[in-house]
Structures
1.
Amino acid sequence: MTVLSVNVNKIAVLRNSRGGRDPDVVAAARACLDAGAHGITVHPRPDARHIREDDVLALADLTRAYGVEFNLEGNPFAPPRPGYPGFHALCAATRPAQATLVPDGDAQLTSDHGFDFARDLDGLRPLVASLKALGCRVSLFADAGADIAAAAASGTDRIELYTGPYAEAFAAGDADRALPAFADTARAAAAHGLGVNAGHDLSQANLGAFLDAVPGVQEVSIGHALIGEALYAGLDATVKAYLAVLSTR
């Protein structure tokens, strides 16, 4: 079965909009895990717009106590700055089960593309090796149709399919147009010995169709839609609804 890692960035966005500690990111993550989520994902940005260094440390402790996966996402090329020690330093401090590398810049509202593996290969190789030396499984953010041979040459363990274009196509009633490229990329990853994750704008509405069409997805990381849906139904019910979708695949 595909496993669910809940991204709790949006809880931190809400907290930071007011200041203080509420809503509590760790309490929200605990509620997701108590509901059956298989892990927790966060994507700290250098500008600390949502998840901060102290959140990363606290969530690492929480997931370790629960014995579940902690997935830390970030841009490994972003330099350290006050309040942000750098992605590798955060991984060294917390030893997440999975480090997901994403090529996002400060100006991006959210992640919106994968790596250009042919261009970035030389830079990615030593970063992947250094993270694997920490004991992290490494996943690289990838567009449908990406150069999977070059991705595999980096030494990565997995790719994470950037599913934003699929979600847009699904919302427009045109999912069948988008899905073949994702399925082909997943098959190419498997042929090169890579695992496949997926994430970005996946929701209860579109998740099942994606998993039915794309083979071998081992993990989905879902945050924005899940937290939004939880505003109406609550975290416990929403996480369980996603798990119900996954259990039928």
2.
Amino acid sequence: MDMKLKSVAVFCGASKGTTQNYTDAAKAMGQTIAEQGLTLVYGGGEVGLMGTVANAALDAGGEVIGVITKSLEKLEIAHTGLTQLEVVGTMAERKERMAELSDGFISMPGGYGTLDELFEMITWTQLSIHSKPNALLNINNYFEHLLAFINTATESGFIQAHFRDMIIQDVDPSRLLEKLERFEVPAKKLY
């Protein structure tokens, strides 16, 4: 059963990374989200890939909702040109609010914060806290080692194969959004 996405959260770095490919991918992701009539939900920053994906969506006429913590508001230079900016107290509240506002999640290259967001949303799907899809925009094979680790964890019996398989990935933003819409929550039990 395909779901109809209305909004998508994008998790990505407050840095631009070391190659132009990351910036180009963030621009393409933001533009594609807007062109498909979806609302972009993201971490509310003006810098790094976060700012790039938001600006690309805005430039393409899209709606963009940022969610940022009070402490990061100054550190990440909160984006003041968004459709909506919400300021919350904690990182936990930030993730919870982004999850409430989104029908699915896309992780792009980023650091510890991005990985934290990625794994929390996957875990929430696994635990049936929500039934939303999780995807990786795998630019420059950025997530290959992470996916290899997840395969090792699966082969070692710590992640069940049906939960490993719920991580969607692609290098093309349009195809990735199509895969998000086709996502079905695994019917298998947790243990």
